[in-house]
Amino acid sequence: MADPAIVAAPAIVAAPADPATTAGSLHSRAARVLEGNWTGTSTVPSRGLYPHQWSWDSAFIAIGLRHLSPLRAQTELETLLDAQWGDGRVPHIVFNPSVPLDAYFPSPDFWRSSTAGRAAGAPRTVQTSGIVQPPVHALAAWLVHRADPGLSRARGFLPRVYPRLAAWHRYLLHRRDLGGGGLASVVHPWEQGMDNSPCWDAPLARVTPAPARSFRRADLDHGAPEDRPTDLDYGRYVRLATDYRDGGYADGTGDFAVEDPAFNALLIASEHALARIAHELGAPGTARHARAERLTAALVERLWDPAEGLFFCRDVRGGGLIPERGVSGLIPLLLPALPRDVTGALVGTASGPHFGLGGPARLVPSYDLTGESFDPHRYWRGPAWFNTAWLVERGLRLHGERARADALREDFLSTADTSGFAEYVDPYTGDACGAGDFSWTAALTLDLLHEPVGQAVTPVGIGTFDMGDKGNKVDKVDMRDRGEDRG
Question: What SUPFAM superfamilies does the database record attribute to this sequence (predicted)?
Answer without folding.
Answer: Six-hairpin glycosidases (SSF48208)
